[in-house]
Amino acid sequence: MAQFVAPSHLSDGLYFFHGKRQTIASEHTFKVYEPHTGQVVAHCPIADKHSTDKIIEAAHNAQPKWAELTPLERGKILNKVADIIRENQEALAQWEVRTNGKPITEARMDIASSADTFQFFAGVAPAALKGDYFDLPGPAYDRFAYTRREPLGVVGCIGAWNYPFQTCVWKVAPALAAGNAVVYKPSPFAPGSPVLLGEVLSAAGIPDDVYNVIQGEADTGNALCTNDFIRKVSFTGSVPTGQKIQEACAKRNIKPVTLELGGKSPFIIFDDTEIDNAVSGAILANFLNQGQVCTNATRVYVHRRIINEFTEALLKELEKLRVGNPFDEKTNVGANINEDHLKKIEGMVERAVEEGAKLLRGGKRIHPEGFENGFYFDPAVLTNLTENMEIVTDEIFGAVMLLLPFDHEDEVVERANKTGFGLASGLYTRDLRRAHRIAAQLQAGTVFINTYNDTEVFVPFGGFKNSGHGRENCVETLHAYSQVKSVYVNTQPNLEHHLG
Ligand SMILES: NC(=O)C1=CN([C@@H]2O[C@H](COP(=O)(O)OP(=O)(O)OC[C@H]3O[C@@H](n4cnc5c(N)ncnc54)[C@H](O)[C@@H]3O)[C@@H](O)[C@H]2O)C=CC1
Q1: Catalytic-labelled residue, pool 34, 260, 346, 409
Q2: Domain ranges within the chain, ordered by starting residue
Q3: Is the CB of 221 under 6 A from ligand 1?
Q4: What is the pLDDT of residue 499?
Q5: CA 188 to ligand 1: nearest atom
Q6: Fold of the domain built from segment(s) 266-449
Q7: Which pLDDT band, with edges at 50, 70 and 90, does 7 fall under?
Q8: Does an H or E element contain 241, and which?
Q9: Which residue among 238, 245, 258, 348 has the greatest number of ligand 1 atoms within 8 angstroms of its CB, and so is best to mutate?
Q10: Phi and psi (nearest 5°) for 110?
Q11: How many other β-carbons are positioned within 10 Å of the β-carbon of residue 327?
């Protein structure tokens, strides 16, 4: 069992199979960018159907031995994974910054919570992966039934780029705890982190081929979804891709899917709120991870009576915002994932301004000294908006805060719910009765009251409506990575049967 040592570069080994980092021969490659410098750091080979199938087959062959271990035995290995992640938190966080461009202070939190995720599933699996017992007619010892919770086999996972390490862990930890093998396809925009996780898993003692990483774009993802050995797909990404994946998983076989998709979350600030608290909440809800967070609440509804005071306090606070070198401990906002994404955000802001929105700050690409070619965007605040503008209806996935005044509780709840998404929502008020009344009405998988963007591994995470289905981060997730078998038992073989 090799010890985990964080690599100095990842450029020539972005695959993980047979228990180690590898590369494959391929006619096609994609460029890997380092967001904070804007440099191309690797040309990653793309897995075609043949390479994808071979890696999946090896996972299929390796899975039964992993499944033979009891959940407690698997849990001991997963606890070692948590330990190794914690011991290497700084090195892994530095890699996360290089891969994604986020501030180092945020990357450290992602890595720490990833260790917690392994520890949590290692701990709960032995108690959660259990069966039931049922008495059948007659003496209980003659006839009864029981259920077993069994793994699914090989799980295919497809990830987004905004939390490259954490998204991978959220899928892999419960899948492995439940006795499955995993084949993971990261986003081509952030392909490195799941490979590092592979090295951590091997160092902890996960058998070869139980965890694997393949690389590629839509075709590789599709090859994963349509392979017969894949028994479930767990996906994090956009709604249009989620629709394609759900379709692909139904076409050839019937595969269960977990879909963690996009959002357009509302954040409601009532006029009894302490303004400074609401300002911090709104910043947290919008500018974390350069705004590239699926739960982010770009639609900030502020009661008309306090909107001027709130806006003034917000803009003053944002004067302190430091955008730039993500390795600098004082940086609040790092680099966006790539140039195309940055241009998409800039374009949405420009079109909103053309439609009559007023830009109160930021909204443009910036070139911090020493990092001129990195993908930096100065967080925007917009007002003078109408509900049907593209920027108010569509997911931005960038650091753009929209200020929308409201007058009445019923009106704001209706406006908040007027979206096809339903991932998260938030509200600030001192009136707790009102807070819970609104929490019950908001159509979203998570509601934050006087806080925003908290995530804990034991609290369910997932969407309502088009934001997806299935939950991550909770005991029930183990059920989504396992299946129930009912066993009927007759201990009295001579029991007479009457044929009528
Ligand atoms: N609900 C949640 O937990 C989260 C949701 N997201 C959402 O993810 C989106 C941003 O991530 P992106 O990487 O741009 O999303 P995306 O949907 O473009 O890509 C996600 C992944 O799917 C793969 N893919 C693309 N086409 C495919 C196909 N036809 N078959 C199989 N795989 C395919 C991509 O290569 C990538 O690995 C946003 O909409 C965001 O809201 C992001 C993070 C968390």
Answers
A1: 260
A2: 15-261+463-486, 266-449
A3: yes
A4: 59
A5: 35
A6: Aldehyde Dehydrogenase; Chain A, domain 2 (3.40.309)
A7: confident
A8: helix 239-251
A9: 238
A10: -60, -40
A11: 15
Atom of ligand 1 nearest to the CA of 248: 30
Q: Dihedral through CA 18, CA 21, CA 24, CA 29, nearest 10?
A: 140
CATH of domain 15-261+463-486: 3.40.605.10
* 241, 296, 457: residue to mutate for ligand 1 pocket, most atoms within 8 A of CB: 241
Put simply, whether the predicted model's pTM sits higher than 0.80 gets the answer: yes
- pLDDT category of residue 80 using cuts at 50, 70 and 90: very high
**Is residue 244 within 6 Å of ligand 1 at its C-beta?**
yes
One-letter amino acid of 395: E
Q: How far is the CA of 488 from the centre of ligand 1 (A)?
A: 42
For 177-216, what is each residue's pLDDT tens digit?
A: 999 999 999 999 999 999 999 999 999 999 999 999 999 9
Q: Is 260 annotated as catalytic? A: yes
ipTM over 0.90: yes
Contacts of 403 (CB under 8 A, 6+ apart): 300, 302, 307, 310, 311, 360, 381, 382, 383, 385
Residue to substitute in 44, 187, 341, 425 for testing ligand 1 pocket (most ligand atoms within 8 angstroms of CB): 187
The contacts found for 343-350 with CB under 8 angstroms, 24 or more apart, are 344/398, 345/291, 345/377, 345/396, 345/397, 345/398, 345/399, 345/400, 346/377, 348/390, 348/391, 348/394, 348/396, 348/398, 348/400, 349/380, 349/382, 349/391, 349/400
Q: Whose CA is nearest to atom 43 of ligand 1?
A: 294
Structure-block tokens of residue 335: 């680099």
Q: Is the CB of 225 under 6 A from ligand 1?
A: yes
